[in-house]
Design goal:
Shape: globular
Strand order of the largest sheet: 2-1-5-6-7-4-3
CATH topology: Pnp Oxidase, Chain A
CATH architecture: Roll
Length: about 190
């Protein structure tokens, strides 16, 4: 059997066992932001950031703010502010030894995500001031301030399909109202 470009590109033990992705799926993966990706980032108030250290120990951290809190510098570069939080700095410790990063952007109620993978460098508060970065959050408190930030150089960017949202009914309003106040609280 002669393999097409997509099969050569995605061949691994899993695709050999379970099948290859559709060409349209593979073609969504690009090395820069498309206009639709830029618009998605500008409308997104929330993302999950994944990092790992040099030993492969992982951390996933939620980040949020007003839509557009992540600044698009150009089609290959993002600026992500670090707004004061729990001060554990697990992601930053990981980045010191492994500069790879993964981001998944969400927009509440929308059954798609934007995935971005790339490399990151930490920037100081002073550098952020020079880039006109400002605090953009809905509910600031006395500790809300930008401590530092990250410049992300994009290596992969693509929209992700809605299957996980469909399977979970994550944005289902009836389910949200039903569970409000009834879920386990983690810090009690």
């Amino acid at each position: 059997m002669v393999k097409n470009g997509t099969e050569k590109q995605t061949e691994n033990s899993f695709t050999q066992k379970f099948g290859f992705p559709k060409v349209t799926t593979v073609d969504k993966i690009v090395d820069k932001l498309r206009d639709s990706h830029i618009q998605f980032i500008k409308e997104s108030p929330f993302l999950v950031m994944a990092t790992s250290d040099s030993d492969g120990k992982c951390d996933a951290s939620p980040k949020g703010g007003m839509p557009g809190f992540v600044k698009v510098l150009d089609e290959k570069t993002l600026l992500l502010p670090d707004i004061a939080g729990n001060k554990l700095f697990q992601s930053y410790q990981n980045i010191q030894s492994n500069t790879y990063i993964g981001l998944i952007f969400f927009i509440p109620g929308l059954d798609e995500t934007l995935r971005i993978n790339g490399r990151v460098r930490i920037v100081s508060e002073e550098e952020l001031e020079n880039l006109n970065m400002e605090l953009k959050v809905f509910n600031p408190d006395e500790n809300s301030k930008i401590l530092q930030g990250m410049i992300i150089e994009i290596e992969e960017s693509y929209g992700h399909c809605p299957r996980a949202f469909s399977f979970s009914s994550l944005w289902d309003v009836d389910q949200i109202l039903e569970k409000k106040g009834e879920v386990a609280r983690l810090n009690k």
